[in-house]
Amino acid sequence: MVDRATNACLCCGASLASKRADARHCSEKCRNKSYYQETKEAQNAHSRAWAQANPEKVRATKRRSAERHPDNDKKRYARLKANPERRAAQQARQHKHYEEHREEYLKRAKSVQERFPTRGYSYRHGCNWDDLIAELWEAQDGMCYLCEEALNPDKNLAVHLDHDHRCCGTNRSCPKCRRGLACMRCNNLIGRVHDDPDFLRRIADNLEVARTLVQERMKEADLIERGVLFDLDESA
Prior knowledge:
By secondary structure, the chain is mainly α. It has helices at residues 28-53, 55-68, 72-82, 84-100, 102-115, 119-125, 129-139, 165-168, 184-192, 197-225, 232-235; strands at 159-163, 178-183. Among the domains are: 124-199, His-Me finger endonuclease fold (3-Layer(aba) Sandwich); 200-236. Strands 1-2 form a two-stranded antiparallel sheet. Residues 1-5 have low confidence and may be disordered.
C-alpha cells in the first residue's frame, strides 16, 4: 500500500493523481516495472527451465535474431568500448558470476564440447569445419599435400589443416592462407623450420650426402668382417 502521508508512487516516487486508498503507482508503466521487479526471480527461473527443455527452439530463435540483426554484437561492443566504466563494471559482474558458478560453467563447457567437438574450430577458422575438411580431403584424395602419403583420420591429431601463419596467426585461418591437409609429421617439421623451403633443401642435400658416406662405410666394414677385403701385398 502507498503511504498516503507522502502520497508518492512506490516505483518512481512521483505524486499520485489517483485518490483511491489502494493506489500504489502513478502510471501503468510504473505498475509494470514494479511487477517485474517483484517477480523477476520467478520469471528468470521459468525462462531458464523453458530454455533447458526446448534447446532447439532457443537455437532457432537466436539464429533468426542473428539473421535479422547481423550487426547487433558489433554495436553492443562499440557502446561498451565507448564507455570504459560501463565496460569495466560489466566485466567485473561477469567475473564475479563466473567465480560463483565456476563448476557449472566448466560442466556446461564440457557438455558442449562433447556435443559439438568441432564447434571451436568452426568459430576460429570462420567456416563449417567438417565441410572444409571433407572438401580438402576429397581434393587431396586423402593424401598429405606435403609427403603425399595417406592420411589416417582415425588416429588422434593425425590430420592437420596447414596454413601460412603470416596471414592469420597460429590458431586461425582464412581461404587465402590455407595450404591443405597435412600429416602430423609434416606439420611439425615445417613448423620447426618456420616454413623455410630453402632450409629444408639444405637439410635434404646434406642428409643425402651423409647417408651415402655412412652406407659406404657400413658396406666396407661388412666386407672386412666376412674376410672379403684383405691386403694384397701380404697375400703375395
